[in-house]
Each structure stands twice: as structure tokens, then as C-alpha cells.
Amino acid sequence: MSNNRSSDSLLPTETLELDSGLSLVPRFKLNLTVHRADASVKPLDEWQLKRSLIDFLKSSFSVIVPEEDLHVRKFKDINKRKREDPVARGKLFIRQLGFLSSSSEDQEKKVREWKKTVVAKIDGIELSLVGVKFRLTVEIPQSDDFEAMRKDWEENFAFGGGDRGYYKGRKREPDTIVLRGVPSRWFAETRVSSKPSILVTHTIFSALGKIRNLDVGEDDGIGKDADEDDEDIVPGLQCKILVRFDNHNEFCKALKVLCGRSLQKEGSRLKADYEVNWDKDDVFRNATSQSEVNNRSTPKVAAGNYNRSEANRYQPYVPRYSQNNARSKRFKE
Fold it and tell me: According to the UniProt record, where is the region Disordered (predicted)?
């Protein structure tokens, strides 16, 4: 469902159109973990697991999930794992959420309750695959749960210790979003470069709120949990974007829109199922603080006391003679 609503009034099942042919489309993402549920040692049949779960979703929730929206990957070190260890992990994306649409302002609550129902019904179910039983556990990732992230930063600032909860005498609140796992070429200048551009990125994210600062660069992995078993990560093709908004309220509105959505480009079948979170490293604030420290530590010379010897203390040393002990020539002969 697409419309021309602004990010302020966007409902959970609506699409937000951005610049450069991009749009934020609704999705419901679940992380899956698969354990053995019997004494069998037979390997997991990934195709059978997919078919069984897709059929379960259709019969239980009348939701049709294409096979490409259900990713299951077995662990490579399966022979070294204990019986209670998981044998596979995966991701489930439910993108057809139009049936939850309504003109009611209670749509947000309706969607939230439906998601809770889905999690409660799937979590812990046993699937019998050709006589072998497996138990499935599911959870909504924190990057798709705005309230979970809000709780995370409130606890972080409240119990972080020291002056972590305050900055220059004011209560600390996050204002920077970190976005990972989006194609670099979607944020590049067309027919100029395949690398992400600050200008293009700023134009795109301005639709979410007033921006104070922004940084974008290539990214080799999605999040801190990325590992070499994750074959979805292609180094050099994805970018990491940090957007610092003008204030905490602008930040919250933008983060709420980015939660539970994927990025799609007009004319492309690819959907970028990015990971979004708040900046826990205070990248921009730390850079500002370091700059202030550097400015304070560099001595300033008054105009009346300026002399060559004082200035030379902060100039690189340039030898008057070359390695052959010959005077340097100012002009070519």
C-alpha cells in the first residue's frame, strides 16, 4: 500500500516514497533457530523445513510466504555441536501485510498485537520432517522493534555509570541512527560512481527529518553478529550509513519509520532487508569531543609574540640538502 503520507503520519502497513526512486516498504521479520527434538542424528532437510513452515503459516494465519522470503542455513560445524545446540538458523519475512490495513488510528496497536500472536503460535512448535522432529524458536530482532530499542537506550544511559547519562549538564538521549546492509549503488551518483555519495544520501534521508550530520561508507558486514558463515554478506557492495538528526524527537520519528521496513528501488526486484539501530558508540559526539581536546592542547601564539622559531616548532622538518649532500635546486636547469 503506497501513498503520499509524510513520515510523521505514516501507518505501519504503508509505504513511504523517498528520493532517487527508493521506497520503504513494510515487512515483518522473524529470526529462526532450529533444534533437534528427538534422538535422531539424521541431517536437517532445509527444503522440507521450508515447505512445512510455509504450509503452517498459510493454514494458521492465511499468510502466503514465497520461498525466497524464508532463509534457512545449517551450521557448518554440525558434527562438533552438542545435541542441545541448534542445528540451523534462519530468517522469515512476511511482506504481504495489507490485510492489517485500516483507516483507524488503532492500526499500530492492531499490527503489534498480531505480531505478538504470530510469535506466540510459532515459538516452540515441533515440525516432523520425514520422520525426524525439529523444534523451532522464533524472535523479533531488536532492530525491528522500536520499543525494545527505546528500552535499551534508556537502560544504557540510566545504568551506564559515571556521567554516561548526561552530556554538558543535559540528559543524554540518542539522536543518531546506524543503518547497515543496503546496496552502495543505490546511494551513489548515477553515471558518476558506484560508491555511496554524501549528497545523495543526505537528500534521501531528509524525508525522515532534519539532519545535523551524516556519514556513509562501504560496509563489509551486517551488525556485530556477522560471521564468516553468513554468505549473504558481499564485501564492498553494501554501505553503512550514520545519520545524526537535529534532536531526539526527530531521531525517534525516523527510527520508528525505519523499523519493520525494507528498502526497495523502482525497477528492481531486490529488497534490502537492512539492519537499523541507534548509535551506541556516539560516533559524532566523540569526534566533536576529540576535536575540542585537540584545539585546547594546541598552543595559540599571539600576533605580537609571533616569531619564526615558535612557528617552526609546528612545521615539518625539511632538509636543506639532498641525500647526496648537494644543495637543492629551486628551478629546473
Answer: 288-333
